[in-house]
Amino acid sequence: MSEPINELRSRIDALDAELLKLLNQRAQLAREIGRLKNGAVYRPEREAQVLRRLKQLNGGPLSAEVVERLFVEIISACRALEQPLTVAYLGPEGTFSEESAIKRFGSSAERMPCPSIDEVFRAVESRHAHYGVVPVENSTEGAVGRTLDLLLQTPLKVCGEIMLQVHQTLLFNGDSLAEVKRVYSHPQSFAQCQQWLASNLRHAERVTAPSNAEAARLASGEPGAAAIASRRAGSRFQLKVFVENIEDDPRNTTRFLVIGPEDAGISGNDKTSLVMSATNRPGAMRDLLEPFARRQIDLTRLESRPSRTGLWEYVFYVDIKGHREEPQVATALAEVGEKASLLKILGSYPCARD
């Protein structure tokens, strides 16, 4: 048995050496591109095209998910040779926001934890960070209102989206659930785990924290305290993974947006986000949506939000399939602009890689 194994290991060693050589050749080409081009180092549309093509070429046995994760890290390391990127996110370390930032930008990007969503926007607007990652909606609990409000106010553009399947974990250093006297977590995580908590920790006090990572930090220093957070937060604050996947819906997913100084170019599979307002008359909203329907442009999201400019006045956040520079979409947006009392294009960007 040892002879065939040794032969296979020798072939693996040779392949590893070849892979290393090819990776450095790729890194050198990326560095040369960085010297030649002007402007942004991060090109969301180009990255989406590269990953899409590699997944189509993949013949296994590696899954498409593994291939993407590997190449996100390769692209991240090569991009860092051109110019290190700083990405702001809702911190502290160990939050799902950090996890989504790593999923999109890889480990080679410098991560900047911020205490609030407002601070993430402020960090990017002030150029202390190149990009920001903010939660915008959850499949169980709906929209994140503060993100929507700031998108309307900011000059920043949406240049990407990230879909992160969120698995909630009970972190606790004790020996039994009966020992848990208090549970810390973010309000959204509590809402996502209501049934499990009612069945298993009805006796425990629930204390809200500004983030899941902060919940883990608080629980780590208090006997009898547990936290609902990510595995990453548990590792960060030396808390034991006591029960995994306690979310009520196993498909629980949070959508994050990438914000930056400009939106993305056309990738071939894009989405455009906008916010608009209709005049207060019968049929006004129908008239705003009709240009999309007539051109068979899919609406993937429609969310109302108080406008804060008057009582019972609303703005509508809309996501459509297609890039704003594509002729059909551009024509529809121009027509909507003529009818709307407010129209702001938040950005066009590649559709998320699930």
TrEMBL record:
<protein>
    <recommendedName>
        <fullName>Bifunctional chorismate mutase/prephenate dehydratase</fullName>
        <ecNumber>4.2.1.51</ecNumber>
        <ecNumber>5.4.99.5</ecNumber>
    </recommendedName>
</protein>
<keyword id="KW-0584">Phenylalanine biosynthesis</keyword>
<dbReference type="InterPro" id="IPR002701">
    <property type="entry name" value="CM_II_prokaryot"/>
</dbReference>
<keyword id="KW-0511">Multifunctional enzyme</keyword>
<keyword id="KW-0963">Cytoplasm</keyword>
<keyword id="KW-0456">Lyase</keyword>
<dbReference type="InterPro" id="IPR002912">
    <property type="entry name" value="ACT_dom"/>
</dbReference>
<feature type="domain" description="Chorismate mutase">
    <location>
        <begin position="1"/>
        <end position="86"/>
    </location>
</feature>
<feature type="coiled-coil region">
    <location>
        <begin position="5"/>
        <end position="32"/>
    </location>
</feature>
<keyword id="KW-0175">Coiled coil</keyword>
<dbReference type="InterPro" id="IPR010957">
    <property type="entry name" value="G/b/e-P-prot_chorismate_mutase"/>
</dbReference>
<dbReference type="Pfam" id="PF01842">
    <property type="entry name" value="ACT"/>
</dbReference>
<dbReference type="InterPro" id="IPR045865">
    <property type="entry name" value="ACT-like_dom_sf"/>
</dbReference>
<dbReference type="Pfam" id="PF00800">
    <property type="entry name" value="PDT"/>
</dbReference>
<dbReference type="InterPro" id="IPR036263">
    <property type="entry name" value="Chorismate_II_sf"/>
</dbReference>
<feature type="domain" description="ACT">
    <location>
        <begin position="273"/>
        <end position="350"/>
    </location>
</feature>
<dbReference type="GO" id="GO:0005737">
    <property type="term" value="C:cytoplasm"/>
</dbReference>
<dbReference type="InterPro" id="IPR001086">
    <property type="entry name" value="Preph_deHydtase"/>
</dbReference>
<dbReference type="InterPro" id="IPR036979">
    <property type="entry name" value="CM_dom_sf"/>
</dbReference>
<comment type="pathway">
    <text>Metabolic intermediate biosynthesis; prephenate biosynthesis; prephenate from chorismate: step 1/1.</text>
</comment>
<dbReference type="GO" id="GO:0009094">
    <property type="term" value="P:L-phenylalanine biosynthetic process"/>
</dbReference>
<keyword id="KW-0413">Isomerase</keyword>
<feature type="site" description="Essential for prephenate dehydratase activity">
    <location>
        <position position="254"/>
    </location>
</feature>
<keyword id="KW-0057">Aromatic amino acid biosynthesis</keyword>
<dbReference type="InterPro" id="IPR008242">
    <property type="entry name" value="Chor_mutase/pphenate_deHydtase"/>
</dbReference>
<keyword id="KW-0028">Amino-acid biosynthesis</keyword>
<comment type="function">
    <text>Catalyzes the Claisen rearrangement of chorismate to prephenate and the decarboxylation/dehydration of prephenate to phenylpyruvate.</text>
</comment>
<dbReference type="GO" id="GO:0004106">
    <property type="term" value="F:chorismate mutase activity"/>
</dbReference>
<dbReference type="InterPro" id="IPR018528">
    <property type="entry name" value="Preph_deHydtase_CS"/>
</dbReference>
<feature type="domain" description="Prephenate dehydratase">
    <location>
        <begin position="86"/>
        <end position="261"/>
    </location>
</feature>
<comment type="pathway">
    <text>Amino-acid biosynthesis; L-phenylalanine biosynthesis; phenylpyruvate from prephenate: step 1/1.</text>
</comment>
<dbReference type="GO" id="GO:0046417">
    <property type="term" value="P:chorismate metabolic process"/>
</dbReference>
<dbReference type="Pfam" id="PF01817">
    <property type="entry name" value="CM_2"/>
</dbReference>
<dbReference type="GO" id="GO:0004664">
    <property type="term" value="F:prephenate dehydratase activity"/>
</dbReference>
